[in-house]
Amino acid sequence: MAKDGPNWDGLLKWSLSHSDGTRPTRQLSEEDRKWFAEAMQSQTVDVVKRLKEITQVLQTPQQVLEAHEVTPQDIEGLLDELQEHVESIDMANDLHSVGGLVPLLGYLKNSNANIRAKSADVVSTIVENNPRSQESVMEANGLESLLLRFTSDTDMHSRTQALGAISSLIRNNKPGITGFRIANGYSGLKDALETDSVRFQRKALNLLHYLLQENDSDSDIAIEFGLHHLMMHLVSSFDADVREAALRGLLELVKARKDCSTCGSSIVKGDERLRQILKDRIKAISRVKAMSLFMSQEDLSAAKEERQLLDSLWTTIFNEPSSL
User: Model pTM?
Assistant: First the structure.
């Protein structure tokens, strides 16, 4: 649908001829400056135009797309292209300006699971570290749509991508965090930690850690939903990233609740179940240390990080040094 872009080959040749390292950089003539500015401007205009074209497709009713033999794979390809464009914060914000954000959010309800998942992934790219687009998505009820996919979608990949988008949407976004709490998002985190999907578990643990860091009072909610017990269980996961994320979450929770008199025995000094779990991991990590000569640098770094987290958690809970 898009026309040919600017002459990038010519631009490259011009750039190389003026800065090839073999001669001093010269001052640009007014003509060169004008040509370069026009080349850059034409690219910007083309991207915005392309956003408008993609928006038109996203706004087209499903039956019309099917009548024109547009397949789900075509839509996935279009969403892939859109994601590349909105990696630029300016283009991400422009998508809403040209009317593309609302129809994109509508695709979260598409009957095709791959399209739902890809749409959530694009939303995640749009809102990541982008307060303006976060606000736009919130105003368009995007959080509610993502929460529905996160908690109720029948496809695990779609649920996982929705959780990733939620994480990007509510980071450094107080209304988003509040909305997540009000919408019972913690129940969704509990469900995620109870699944067998390590990728889903990782994303849930990372978001939980962030929420606990942001507000100590969220520890009340975490304990109410029994997330500390689930994290204890995941400390023994076969997946190193899940183990590390579970330890981080527990450490954050323990720090927030250390002096709490109403927490019960679940995460305090007298919890023998947690003591035994940590002892078992300490033994396991000690065996890993003995095999360090046969491990990759990446595995060694992961083991070192886990060892430090275990030591910190043990010291914080039991007020005594670990055996590490």
Answer: 0.82
